[in-house]
Amino acid sequence: MTLTEPSAPAGRKLSTAKAMVEAIAQEMDRDERVFVLGEDVGSYGGIFSSTTGLLDRFGPRRVLDTPISETAFIGAAIGAAVEGLRPVVELMFVDFFGVCMDQIYNHMAKIHYESGGNVSVPMVLTAAVGGGYSDGAQHSQCLWGTFAHLPGMKVVVPSNPADAKGLMTSAIRDDNPVVYLFHKGVMGLPWMAKNRRSIGPVPEGDHEVPIGKANVVRQGSDVTVVTLSLSVHHALDVADELAGQGVDCEVVDLRSLVPLDTDTILDSVGKTGRLLVVDEDYLSFGLSGEVIARVVERDPALLRAPAARVAVPDVPIPYARPLEYAVLPTPARIRQAVLDLVGA
Amino acid sequence: MEAQGRLDLYRTMVLIRTYEEAILREYHADKKPVFDIGAGLVPGEMHLSAGQEPVAAGVCAHLTGDDAVTATHRPHHFAIAHGVDLDRMTAEIFGRTTGLGRGRGGHMHLFDPAVHFSCSGIIAEGYPPALGQALAFQRRGTDRVAVAVTGEGAANQGAFHESLNLAALWQLPVVFVVEDNDWGISVPRSASTCVTSNADRAAGYGIPGVRVEDNSVEAVHEAAGQAITRARAGEGPSLIEVHTLRLWGHFEGDAQGYRSDLDGVPGRDPLPTYENQLRASGDLDDAKVAGYQAAASERVEAAIAFAKESPEPDPATALDFVFARA
Q1: How far is A103 from chain B (nearest CA, A)?
Q2: Which of B61, B6, B17 is nearest to B277 (CA)?
Q3: Which CA distances in Å does A31 have to A2, A42, A129, B307?
C-alpha cells in the first residue's frame, strides 16, 4: 500500500483511483474533521477502488461503511457538514441518485442559500459514472448535467490521475457541497479495459486543481473540442490521428461543470472558429447545449461553422456491446464530427 | 414535576399560541376581500401549529441551545420552544433582510445555527440530517442530542425508516418525534398508516417507542425526558409519538371540508385544558395567566414590529449565497 510510505519516487505514476485515495488520505491527515462514509467504502475499499486502504490507515471511526440507505447516509453527511465536519460520502453509482435526490438537491444544495449564507455544507459527494462495459441502462449513465442544472452544488469531473488528486483536494477544502464524479473508465482499474492515460504522473504532497478552471490539454488551430472525463482521451486520440491528415484539434478538458470556465472555451473558439462538444451524458437539455449557448450568447461571430455535438442520443444506455458503442461518444464518432466541421 | 416546571411549560405554550395567532392575523390582514396566497405582507403557504404546542414545549424543555432540532414544514412551535431568535424568525417569515435567511428561506426553511435549528418543506427529510448532527455530537464526545420531528403521515416515507435503522445501528443520540395530528393534509391516519401507533414501529429497529395520548404536555415532558436522558448517556435513539391536534387547517386558506372531527376540536384545545389543570392544582390563577399572556403579547408584537420595520431585500442581491465565499 503506497499510502503508508513516507514518500514515493519522483515522477511516480498512479492510477486515477490511487490518486483520488491519496488526496482523501492527505486531507484526512491534515484535517481531523474529514471522514469518509458510504456503501462498501471500508474493507472493500470502494467498488471502484475510490477508498482503498483508508480503513486500514484511519480505522472505522473515520471510514464508515453504511447500510444501503442512500437517503439516510447522504442526509447524515449533510447534518455532519452543517455541524462543521467535512464528510466525503460516496454514492456508489451515480445512477442510484434517484433514491436519495431529495437530500442532494433540496438539502445539500439549498441550505446555504435558504439560510442566507448563515449555514455552510462543506461536503463532497462522490459517485462513479460512465459506460462502455455492458453494465446496462441503470449502471452506465453520466448524469452530470442533471446535477449541474440544479443550483447550489459544484460539479467536478476529473479525466486523469493528477486532476483526480487536485480536484479532490480542492473539493474537500471547499466550503460548498461538491459533487465529484469519477468515470470508471479512467480509474485505471485492473479489471476493466484501461485507457493508457488512466495511469499517469501525480504530484506528491499538496496538490490542488482549482474548481472552475478548464485545461487546454492540446493546443490546435482548426477545431476546438470541448469535453470532459473519458471523452478527453478519445478526443486526444482522435486529435493525434487527424494531425497526420493536416487537421489540428485543440482539446479543452472542462474538469468542472459548475462553475463552467466559459472564458477558456471562448478563447479557444476565438482561435479556431469551430466548436465540437463531446459529452457522454445525454444530448438534449444538457452540457453540450449549454456550452454552445454560452458561445452563441457571448459572440456568435466566433463561429465560422455551425457548432456540433457528439453525445448519447437520448436513449437509455443499451446492454449489448454493438448497441452500447453505437450510442457512446466513441473516437469514430468524434473523428467524423471533426471532419464534418472542417469540411463545412 | 415541580410547580415551576409546569408553569414553564404553560408559559411556552402561551408564547407559541400568541405567536401563531399574531401570524394568523398578519397573514390574512391584507389578503382581503379575495384571498390571494402570494399577496400581502406575509406571502406564500402558511402552516400554523396551534394545538401542537404540547409537543414542542414538552420536548424542548429538556434541550439547550447546544442540542439540535430539525422540524417540519409546520415549524414555529418547535422554533419558539427551542429558542430560535424570534425577531429574526419573524423577519424571515415577512421576507426581510434581517430574517434568519435574509429573506431566502421563508417560514418552511428557518435556519438558526446559534441553536442548531433547521426545518424543511419536504416530508420526513429532516430525519437524515439529524443523524449527521448526532454523529457529529457523538464523535466529539459530547452529550448533545439531536431531535428530529415529523408528522404521522411522514412516518410512511423511506427516509423515516432508513433513519431509524441507521440511528439504531450506530447508537446515535437522536430522539425521533412523531406529531400525530390525525391528518396528512386531508388524509386521515387510518387511510395512510397500517399501524395504530407509529411508536410500534420503533420495535422493528430495536429501539424504545412510546406513544403519548391526549396531547398532554406533562406526559410528553416525561417521555421526552427519558428519551433524551438515554440519548445523552450514549444509549442510543428513541421514538416518541404524540397524539396531538391540528387546531387549524393544513395551511391557511384550507377550508377543511374533508375534516370529520372538527366538531370536537375546540374541546380538545390543549391550552385551556392545561390552564384549567394548573388552576385546579393551584399553580395558576387569573393574575398569573394575565401576566404570561401580557408578556407573550409584548414579545410577539415586538417581533412583528421588528419584521415590519426591517427592509425588504434588494432584488440585485437575489443571486447572493448560492455558493459560500471562500
Answers
A1: 7
A2: B6
A3: 20, 19, 28, 41
Which residues of A carry out catalysis?
A: 139
Residue-wise pLDDT for A93-118, tens only, equals: 999 999 999 999 999 999 999 999 99
Is the bond leading into A259 cis (omega within 30 degrees of zero)?
yes
- DSSP letter at A103 equals I
Q: At what angle do helices A70-82 and B158-169 cross, to 10 degrees?
A: 70
- ipTM score of the complex? 0.94
Q: Confirm or reject contact between B236 and chain A (CB < 8 A).
A: no
Chosen for mutation from A35, A37, A71, A89 (greatest number of chain B CBs closer than 10 Å) is A71
| CA A187, A193, A194, A195 torsion-angle sign | negative
- What is the separation, in whole angstroms, between the first and last Cα of chain A? 52
Secondary structure E strands in A66-210: 86-93, 124-129, 154-156, 178-183, 199-201
The stretches in chain A having pLDDT less than 50 are: 1-8
A75 to B127: CB separation less than 8 angstroms, yes or no: yes
The pLDDT value given to residue B11: 98
Q: How far apart are CA B295 and CA A162, in angstroms?
A: 63
Assigned C-alpha cell, A263: 472564458
Please tell me which residue of chain B has the smallest CA distance to A116.
B101
Distance of alpha carbon A209 from alpha carbon A159, whole angstroms = 12
Q: Are strands A215-218 and A223-227 parallel, antiparallel or unpaired?
A: unpaired
Q: What gap in Å lies between CA B110 and CA A111, rounded to an integer?
A: 10
- For cell 497526420, what's the residue? A244
Residues B202, B263 contacting (CB under 8 angstroms): no
> Can you tell me whether residue B288 is helix, strand or coil?
helix
Write down the pLDDT at residue A10: 56
For B169-198, the pLDDT digits (tens) are 999 999 999 999 999 999 999 999 999 999
